[in-house]
Amino acid sequence: MAFSKIASGGVDGGVGDSLRPNSKPLIINGNCAISQKGTAATDESTGGYYRVDRMYFAISSMGEGKLQQESLTSGNAFDNGFRKAWRVDCAVADASPASGDKMYLQYNFEGQDLQVFKKGTANAEKFTLAFWVKSNKTGTGNIQLKDKDNSNRQCTQSYTISSANTWEHKVCVFGADTTGAFDNDNGKSLNINWWLDSGTDSDSGTANHGTWEAQDQTKVNAGGTLNIQDNTANDWAITGIQLEVGEYTSSTLPPFQHESFEENLRRCQRYYCEWGGSNDATYTRSYNCAGEANGTSAVTNLGFFTPVPLRANPTINNPTMGYFDYNTVTSDTSSGTVSITGGEGNMNMVSISFTGCSNLSDATPVTARARDTLTMDAEL
Fold first, then answer.
1. Which of 97, 232, 320, 356 is the most exposed place for a label (fewest CB within 10 A)?
2. How far apart are CA 377 and CA 310, in angstroms?
3. Topology of domain 3-268, CATH
4. Which residues does 251 contact at the CB level (< 8 Å), separation at least 6?
5. Which of 361, 357, 293 is nearest to 325 (CA)?
6. pLDDT tens, 79-97?
């Protein structure tokens, strides 16, 4: 079997030398400490980034999963420095899935962050993925690396949960691939998919673990027995996720790189950030920006400074409860129906525009402040 496991209660010695000794972790928020969208459990039946930054929940016609950022207070993962985890509980079961049903946890990479693997060259490196996992169920789980730049080429690997309700450490090795280089840009180049349940479209093939090959959906969860959605008593949780360049075992794996909370948060904010506001007259937690009136009812080029450069032009939400108050140098007016029409990322600033204003003077300076949460989403 291609993984090795630290025994229950064991500690990873982390004695191996990393090929990237002074670099940041390839997995952002691998300790699951950042959850900008909240920590409370919510039932979800569609895919999305919900709880724990950078972790995408993929589900299709597979009942509902209850997602949360779990707080750890004991156990092997806690003893190794981890205080938070991504967790899914079966909220609505699907014990007899249709052929196309599926559910998995996904992590996405930019291609420019993966060049160190030298994929598509004669010097291609292996991938070692390590993580802590816990479930009420024992059995075999499957992981898929999916190359989005080269016709979804894939490499799968399996791991075994040996003890129920016990944090276990897994180390899985995926082969080097001399076919198909990752694009060197900010686009989505690689998925890691932890398969949690599926129908026959995804598990009826014969696995070829550890070897890169053309896309074959039937192999991605072949032999998987976790079936998290077969009963509402089921749960699955993960933390301490790390990806290393080259081949390692549990005894040679470099130690997990624990970043400061601030550094971890800033790396997450490249993909998603938000500004909070309170819908009251005192502007508790409000935020300000400045721009210019375009005629008497619109404001253009209102600049919001972002904490870090965003990955790409973000999707900007309309405030869900509140409104923007705005003023010019000659008047002070409020409106209940100001909308945001667009956004453009430019280094550390996002430029947005308002419509639905009134009593503005064309080409005059305008400042605005918001009373509700504004989110900017540049996720992969």
1. 320
2. 9
3. Jelly Rolls (2.60.120)
4. 4, 13, 15, 16
5. 357
6. 999 999 999 999 999 999 9
